[in-house]
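Human
Can I borrow your eye for a moment on a structure tokenisation matter? Give me a protein, with the fold worked out from its sequence. Write it directly below this note and I will take it from there.

Assistant
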Amino acid sequence: MEIARTRLFWFSLFIGVLCLNWFQLLTPKMENIEVVRPNLVTEYNAPTSLIMKDYNPDEGGLFWIKFKTSASYLPDFLNLKHLRLRTLSCINSLSTDSVSWKLPTSPDIRCNNERGLPLYSSTNVLGKTTTWNLTGDSFGGSFGFYLDKDWSAPPLVFGMIILCLALAGMLWAKLPVDSDRWKIPVISIFILAFLLRFWTTQIAMPPEMFLFSDMAAYFHRGIQMLRGSFDAGQTFQPIGYTVYGLLLRLAGDWELHKWVSIFVSMGTVLLAYLLVLKNFGKAAAFLTLLFVALDVPQIGFTARYMAESPYSFLIMATLWWIMKALESSRMRDYFIVGILMMVSFYFKGNHAFFIPAFSLWLLYRERAQFKNAVLKVSMMALGCLLVMTPHLAFTKIAYNQMQWGPTAGALNFVEGKCPWKNNADSSGSSWMSPLFVTLNETAFKKWDRPFTDQAYFWKAGAECVRENPWVMVESLRFINYLFYGNSTWPISGSKVGFMYDIWAPVFEWGLLPLALLGALAFARRRNNYAEVSALLMLTIFFTVYIFKSENRFRAPFDGVILMWSSLGIVFIIERIKAVVRIFETPTAIESKSS
């Protein structure tokens, strides 16, 4: 039986990889992009055909975009004839190799159609190298076009069906579930989670169409690095996601990036399920799977060009390996934990205080064998150092200054402790958290130093604390703002906003109280996972207390919170069963036994 399951897994994996390669081959790849802006400035070999900019009515006008698509490797009859042209602003004309296309007359279809206006070619436009020429009107805001495949085309629908079956086959072969009947609902939820992430990322709001704010910053920093242009501002946010996103797009354009994002998010779902299954049983694991699969912030961040989704996966992988290390006591496992902790840090630093806190917890936990505990912590430190050293070397070479982490921490400290929430620096950069927009705390200050001058901004933040010590008490509010008082930017108000509007009250007023109950109920049970996850969340609370917070900072840790929600439900069910047993009559008990 085990041999049959192994064969099923590898066969399903092979079919799944074939499907993904099939999708990649069917995707039109835009190359040699030329953009002529309304002011007639021309950009050759542009990194994208979509120009994201702040609205300015004086900068509107006619623009031109030209690009090529290479000849497909597939036979003519397999190439797609149904395509979609996603538009920002309005398209006026479209031609390929001097042949004009007939476009819809309705402005609702031609203008700002992020879903994409349908294109049908009776000729094999993707079977040969084709030059595309497009014109459009910009009204002063973002503009451009993106050529994509139409997922309603029969070859793609067929491929998706086969891919879902392949995923189901892999899960059936390898999920550690004691009953085949139990696998059916579990696999069904996994497939539902996959389809929700697929729909969001590939259809509803593909990341290449929404490069604004943090997303645009990650994208353009990567392009700058690729072109050999380096400045200290590139280290303002952790550098990991900039490099990660750039490498994926270089390897397989946006198509590879989107599929990796989907499966990375699915990895978070899988690890959450396996962690609870191993530590608390299948009932709690099933509920955890359901909640994490439907977690709208996790679904939404899968489609955003932001660090939250891979960071969620890395946090869950770190927890998984910590459990493995505590169980095995092998030094190599602690070394891997150190690597994962530091790689996670270079995506987002929300868990920075967890690294020393876990080390101290481990030393205390194994104080009876203190030398061995020190050795374990040393192996973790070595793993961290292995990741940190290339970062130190890179920043020294690229920016002539060794930096062990991002430079945003000092400004975050200023935001949290000073009255100025809307800040601009001497280099022209500006920064304001969505939380303070929601709270209408918009006091502005123009600084005469760049945000990357950490020493200056740490000193400025400390001066604010000295002038108003009460701010250290007021900063407790940031723990609340992880959960309440603001929405999850940029998921609320997006194409999945309707799902978020349903999810947010369920999460805030249902699942969060259940999580608190579950955490308190299982805190009395000596369980490594319960202790480590509680320590993780406590360090997150400390981090936002010191700096600042917003709802988005909590989203990568939703997996942990939703695990506790599941445990809260399990605890309630256990108490109900206990009460029922107390009030059962002796006759009922006797009849059951007979």
Observations:
- DSSP finds 22 helices and 13 strands in the chain.
- The mean pLDDT is 91.
